[in-house]
Design goal:
The chain is of the alpha/beta class and about 325 residues long. Helix content is about 50%, strand content about 15%. The longest helix has about 30 residues, at about 160-190.
């Protein structure tokens, strides 16, 4: 199966994810929950970044994402832990899982199977099992993102507003699909032979991270990202030399904080002096969830079309397979 086919199925995946979430059973924890910690990497970890942004205004306890082997000392019996690994066999996540089991935290596992689900069943931990017939974890954002929202909802840490916004975003994506594909084809051509430099505001950094990761894995090329206003205090100074190999992509929203919108306009004027390719993308949608899902859909299409133009296989990740094989020898 090609990556473009998996991208096509993203709205349907969100629909299926909602159905899975509604059937899940998450038991109440014995202690009050005072913080949330999610362990997950790559395509299984980016969902937590989106959840953090989507619940920022409603979740009243700290939310932290861990993307490594170790866990923070703040995880304890008052913590909700979500272990997210699409395959269920991610090395770093499994290592942190073992440490998390010693903390007394409320642990919920999200995976398609593997050692994570096996351990959850063995220890009678709550888990949500997602479909295992998707060949690439990065194509499974909807599964991890939506299930995490349901876990928070079932434990009464958030209401159901964000889940309803996910539902609405599905309709938006279906409505805009053909226009998104046409736009993505053009933008892929604009990015061909360039190094994407991705900017957005701090409320939507997950979109920039997702696009960067998809450029890396799908398009097989390097990219970097930063956010406004933080980049105005450092990276902006680095724009000093003309370099037309760089292509700046701004992800923008009409409801961005006004001072940030002004900053982006000024940044764009400055940066335009140093590269000939500056692209502004404007979201569609009534809220952050819809806007983010719109950009995810658009960005995923762009990276697949860019890969085709570059002559690579968008789903292939042989270098990661090589890395895992070498690690297994140590």
């Amino acid at each position: 199966m090609k990556m473009i086919e998996l991208v096509e199925r993203f709205p349907a995946q969100l629909t299926e994810s909602l159905e899975i979430g509604r059937k899940a059973t998450i038991r109440k924890h014995s202690s009050p929950i005072r913080n949330v910690y999610v362990s997950g990497l790559g395509g299984s970890g980016i969902g937590a970044n989106f959840v953090s942004e989507f619940t920022r205004d409603s979740l009243k306890v700290p939310f932290q994402v861990g993307k490594g082997y170790s866990i923070p000392a703040s995880v304890n019996k008052f913590t909700l832990v979500i272990v997210s690994s699409y395959s269920g066999n991610t090395e770093e996540t499994l290592a942190s899982f073992e440490a998390l089991l010693q903390t007394g935290a409320k642990i919920v596992c999200i995976a398609s199977g593997g050692k994570v689900i096996a351990k959850a069943k063995e220890l009678d931990l709550d888990f949500i099992e997602v479909p295992a017939n998707w060949p690439s974890p990065r194509a499974c954002l909807g599964f991890s993102l939506v299930q995490q929202l349901f876990v928070l909802n079932y434990l009464k840490l958030i209401g159901n507003q964000v889940i309803k916004q996910i539902e609405a975003s599905i309709q938006l994506l279906e409505k805009e699909r053909e226009d998104i594909k046409k736009m993505a084809q053009k933008l892929a051509g604009d990015l061909l032979g360039k190094i994407p430099v991705i900017y957005t505001t701090d409320r939507m950094e997950s979109v920039a991270v997702r696009f960067r990761q998809q450029v890396n894995e799908n398009s097989k090329c390097l990219a970097w990202h930063h956010v406004v206003p933080e980049m105005n205090h450092n990276e902006l100074v680095g724009w000093r030399e003309k370099n037309n190999q760089l292509a700046v992509v701004y992800f923008r929203n009409k409801d961005d904080f006004k001072r940030n919108a002004v900053r982006v306009d000024i940044n764009k004027n400055i940066i335009s002096e140093y590269t000939s390719t500056v692209i502004e993308l404007w979201s569609k949608g009534k809220n952050l969830v819809e806007q983010s899902m719109y950009f995810v859909f658009l960005g995923d299409y762009i990276t697949c079309y860019l890969c085709d133009l570059r002559g690579f296989d968008s789903i292939e990740v042989k270098v990661i397979d090589y890395l895992k094989n070498e690690l297994s020898k140590v």
